[in-house]
Design a protein that fits this description.
Elements: H1 2-23, E1 26-35, E2 37-42, E3 46-50, E4 56-59, E5 62-69, E6 72-75, E7 78-80, E8 84-88, E9 96-97, E10 105-111, E11 114-122, H2 123-130, H3 141-159, E12 169-170, H4 186-193, E13 199-201, E14 212-213, H5 223-227, E15 249-253, H6 255-264, E16 272-276, E17 295-300, E18 303-308, H7 309-316, E19 323-328, E20 334-340, E21 346-353, E22 371-373, E23 381-386, E24 395-396, H8 397-406, H9 412-419, E25 424-426
Parallel strand pairs: 1-12, 14-24
Antiparallel strand pairs: 1-11, 2-5, 2-9, 3-4, 3-8, 5-6, 6-7, 8-10, 10-11, 13-25, 15-23, 16-17, 16-22, 17-18, 19-23, 20-21
Helix pairs in contact: 2-3, 3-9
Length: about 425
Amino acid sequence: MLRKLLVLCMTLLCLSWSTVVAAAELVRVALVSGQYSIELTGENDFLVVERSTGRKELLPKGKYFVRGEQGKLVIGEQSFQDAVSIQAQANKKLPQVNKRAYAGSYELRLEQEKLLLVNLVDLEDYLASVLPGKTMQVWPEAVIQAQAVAARSYVKYQLGTHGAAAYDLSAFDEELSYAGLAAARPTITRLLATTAGEYLVDDHGHPVQALTTSSSGGHTESALELWGRDVSYLQAVEDYDQDSPDYTWETRLAPAQVQNILEQNGYQVGRLESLRLSTLAEPSLDRTPTGRVRQLVFTGEQGSVRLSGTQVQQLLGLPSNLFEVSTGVPRPESLRVPIENYYGMEIGSKDIDINLKEDKTTVWTQMANSYHQLNGGKDEKITFTGRGRGQGLGLSAWGARGLVNSRPQLGYKDILHYYYPRTVLRK
């Protein structure tokens, strides 16, 4: 009888283990795409398996340079006719890719003589790496848990949209940046585990594209206003991100610098003469109801170009698409005065802050409503003054932190339902 019970327990244990293994969900992340060489560094021997033939090669630990050569994959001195899988041996480490360590395994192939290396990694291991880039260990636990569920939802959404593509996500995805094992943080990994398997679905039961933003500048944006199509769970809501270091920001660029950036991206307008954008105080159709820029017009000697606020943000490296524009000579914030000794000889200098009683403005001239003229002066600047960081869609990291700090009774589910209305939490 005892023997039968023991056999039954072992069978149940095996079944439960196989269920866990089967439940593991892999994410395909492109680590290298469109390059001609990759550096692999193995601390241990590792296995290379050719996909089409099943040929196996155990490569000794060391440094290898991977390249394509006459349609073949070359790893060190070994060449392969087809795509290969690179695997770690039992209880050993996977080789590093360009000096970064990853979990899981790799798929390596040639695409038009360029290399594509994809990391096949367990979803939870992937999330443990990307989450520290979205939040901070010292933040309220509910905020970190909400970010974990949002990230898992976003990945599941991506898994369902790529079909026969070679990978699901890029390591440089705008939403989730993936840097491998070194990026993981114990506190965040522990909180990630408390939400294991949880993700958000929409009205139709599909995983949601749970976008996030660092800081919205006081109000998140709706997908309808930014994309021109309504998404039930990406709606504009009041934000609580006043503590964000990017709640307000200012960027100054020389007109010639902006012209060069436009030209490098195919917009030939010549020497810039003006910009057109309404002010936040007097918004027009070129802004969304929350103030984000729908479009901005650059005019030069050779013509004009109309760009979306998101395009301007990306091209010029601005923190967000919620900004105002002004032109002219920026007012100095300090005045350098000489320091003299008893004999009237200059022995140094000192910067004295200039504090004027009137409201601080970024320029002395050219603040006329929607049209911002450029006169070509030597010290002339285009000044972008804005709020927030990111596109303002979805969960706001700093806003969620402010929301929980003001209402400590709220949990991560409350945060998720606030920033993603009309969603359901599933596991």
